[in-house]
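Project outcomes to date are best conveyed with an example. Our students and postdoctoral researchers have been running inverse folding experiments weekly, and each run begins with a structure described purely in tokens. The record below, which covers 651 residues, was selected by the lab manager from last quarter's runs and is presented without edits.
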């Protein structure tokens, strides 16, 4: 070899002289210049197609955003489903080519098979213990299909039991009561044999028509019928029943006529439109479908609320369920609501008018002060102080406007107070429904005005004490009045001599002892009190201790206040004087005309007083009584001696 040639051992090549070295240096300079150009171009490449890149990033972000519905029920977007399928195909092809993956050319990522082997080795080498194994750092990927199948049956999209299947329940609802009883599980009480539920015999279109006609034409003998099982007999009865219903209900070859024809046409048109919408929206993305069709039943939605109190957020309890409902525009107003209500038969107390009551009506729960009334025959709402025990009555309160026939229930308190519940016995105080919504009330209360007569004529009298001024009398001119004895009258004109007195005419002459009544009616105003129950704004400890307005009875019990007894209402012993009747006086002319047996014989014969009746009774002293008795003995002895002497002289 010449001296110009040099051998390069690492590269295994010969270097020839100075010319080759110069060429190599020129090539290196060109490479450096090209590298600099590439760096400049790469630094400026991010500015190219910025609008296109932003659009693609926006669409990718909205398409691939994971939400609760996608994580629980799977992918429902068409684009994301296609992308997921492409990713799975790419992953399968990548696994077939090389199960392992290298990071940076130095580290190799473990495959799923290697992970399972490593986990089994750790479980074999672990110490035996009766305690549960600690949860490892590995978590399940719930987006994988095999992990989804583990919890699929926990949701409505999974496979349910036959008795809980929606199609089965809908089929049972469409069946009649007799059909649903036939296909339920039952037990023969005589033999003790249990029969499980069987499906109703369906029409088998694949069966040959000749065999079906032959079975209908050929009757079953009694021996064959006795050998049939209960299930076969029931199937035979159901088949006959279905044939009878088909012949009876659809006489005109299955065509529906009459009033039901219009309804069936509307139903068929609605079903056709629903099927058409379902077919058209099937290939659309879910976001676009929601914008066109709206949120369907079963979708998860996010709701934003305005003007919410800060206490609701501060005292929010995720374990306390909340029900969200919507109101119509007309239900956001406040006015008078007329209801039909009945006190619950298990509630011990009767309800008093104007006592605060908590009402759960529709989506609202509020406290109000209702007024109870009874509708008379002339459609007059008569005021009631208390609710009747076993009869419905009318109730009017100031509250939210609610559609008619909306049911509600009422309670006196929502507190979890053991003593109060033990005293009441039952929480629900009344139930009812809304009957009418109005901006005014027509509740009337009966008022009795009482007066006494002070001057009486033949069929007229002057009454006082009923009114206080002549103006009130002028307002009630022509009103009807009535006495306690039932004599009817009418108010005529005011009397100027006594303030509030008036002249009234009657059907008959009245007495000074009569009391005159005038029945009138006056309007009762319903209190405008409406307080929503704000228990959701309280903390968890105070949520069940919400207390609104208290009743008068509760305040009196707390402060130990007793009503002052009215002296006129107290029971006193009744003292009645015995009535002295006048003696019956019969004229002498009539006595002479009467027979002797009918003539009065009770009177004294001599009307003159006797001498003994006019004598004054003398009360003797003990000494005088002894003297009187001694003189009486002497007189008696003297009379006896005279009698003996007279008898002797006669002999």
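After processing, the design step wrote out the following sequence:
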């Amino acid at each position: 070899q010449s001296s110009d040639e040099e051998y390069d051992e690492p590269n295994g090549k010969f270097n020839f002289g100075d010319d080759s070295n110069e060429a190599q240096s020129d090539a290196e300079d060109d490479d450096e210049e090209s590298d600099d150009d590439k760096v400049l171009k790469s630094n400026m490449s991010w500015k190219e197609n910025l609008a296109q890149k932003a659009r693609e990033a926006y669409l990718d972000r909205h398409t691939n955003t994971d939400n609760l519905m996608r994580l629980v029920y799977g992918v429902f977007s068409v684009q994301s489903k296609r992308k997921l399928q492409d990713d799975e195909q790419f992953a399968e092809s990548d696994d077939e080519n090389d199960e392992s993956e290298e990071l940076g050319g130095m580290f190799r990522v473990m495959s799923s098979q290697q992970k399972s082997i490593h986990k089994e080795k750790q479980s074999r080498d672990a110490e035996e213990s009766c305690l549960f194994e600690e949860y490892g750092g590995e978590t399940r990927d719930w987006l994988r299909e095999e992990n989804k199948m583990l919890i699929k049956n926990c949701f409505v999209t999974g496979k349910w039991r036959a008795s809980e299947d929606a199609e089965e329940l809908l089929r049972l609802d469409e069946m009649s009561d007799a059909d649903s009883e036939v296909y339920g599980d039952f037990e023969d009480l005589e033999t003790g044999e249990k029969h499980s539920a069987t499906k109703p015999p369906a029409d088998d279109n694949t069966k040959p028509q000749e065999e079906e006609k032959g079975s209908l034409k050929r009757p079953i003998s009694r021996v064959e019928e006795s050998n049939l099982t209960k299930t076969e007999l029931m199937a035979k009865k159901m088949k006959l029943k279905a044939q009878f219903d088909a012949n009876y209900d659809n006489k005109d070859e299955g065509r529906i006529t009459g009033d039901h024809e219009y309804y069936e046409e509307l139903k068929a048109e609605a079903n056709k439109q629903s099927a058409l919408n379902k077919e058209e929206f099937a290939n659309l993305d879910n976001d676009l479908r929601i914008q066109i069709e709206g949120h369907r039943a079963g979708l998860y939605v996010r709701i934003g609320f305005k003007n919410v109190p800060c206490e609701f957020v501060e005292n929010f309890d995720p374990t306390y369920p909340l029900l969200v409902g919507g109101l119509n525009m007309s239900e956001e107003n406040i006015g008078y609501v007329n209801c039909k209500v009945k006190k619950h038969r298990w509630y011990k107390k009767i309800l008093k008018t104007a006592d605060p009551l908590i009402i759960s009506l529709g989506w609202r729960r509020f406290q109000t002060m209702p007024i109870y009334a009874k509708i008379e025959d002339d459609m007059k709402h008569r005021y009631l102080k208390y609710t009747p025990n076993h009869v419905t009555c009318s109730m009017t309160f100031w509250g939210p406007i609610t559609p008619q026939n909306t049911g509600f229930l009422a309670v006196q308190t929502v507190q979890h107070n053991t003593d109060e519940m033990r005293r009441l016995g039952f929480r629900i105080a009344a139930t009812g429904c809304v009957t009418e919504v109005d901006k005014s009330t027509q509740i009337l209360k009966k008022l009795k005005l009482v007066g006494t007569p002070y001057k009486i004529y033949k069929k007229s009298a002057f009454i006082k004490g009923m009114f206080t001024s002549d103006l009130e009398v002028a307002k009630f001119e022509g009103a009807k009045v009535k006495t306690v004895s039932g004599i009817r009258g009418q108010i005529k004109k005011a009397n100027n001599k006594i303030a509030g007195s008036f002249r009234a005419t009657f059907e008959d002459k009245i007495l000074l002892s009569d009391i005159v009544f005038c029945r009138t009616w006056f309007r009762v105003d319903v209190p405008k009190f409406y307080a929503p129950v704000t228990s959701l704004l309280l903390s968890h400890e105070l949520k069940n201790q919400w207390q609104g307005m208290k009743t008068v009875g509760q305040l009196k019990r707390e402060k130990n206040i007793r009503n002052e007894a009215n002296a006129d209402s107290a029971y006193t012993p009744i003292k009645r004087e015995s009535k002295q009747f006048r003696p019956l006086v019969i004229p002498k002319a009539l006595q002479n005309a009467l027979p002797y047996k009918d003539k009065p014989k009770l009177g004294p014969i001599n009307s003159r007083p006797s001498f003994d009746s006019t004598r004054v009774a003398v009360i003797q002293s003990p000494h005088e009584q002894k003297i009187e008795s001694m003189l009486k003995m002497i007189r008696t002895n003297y009379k006896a001696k005279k009698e003996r002497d007279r008898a002797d002289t006669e002999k």
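The chain is about 35% helix and 20% strand. The first helix runs from residue 17 to 44. The training component of this project remains on track.
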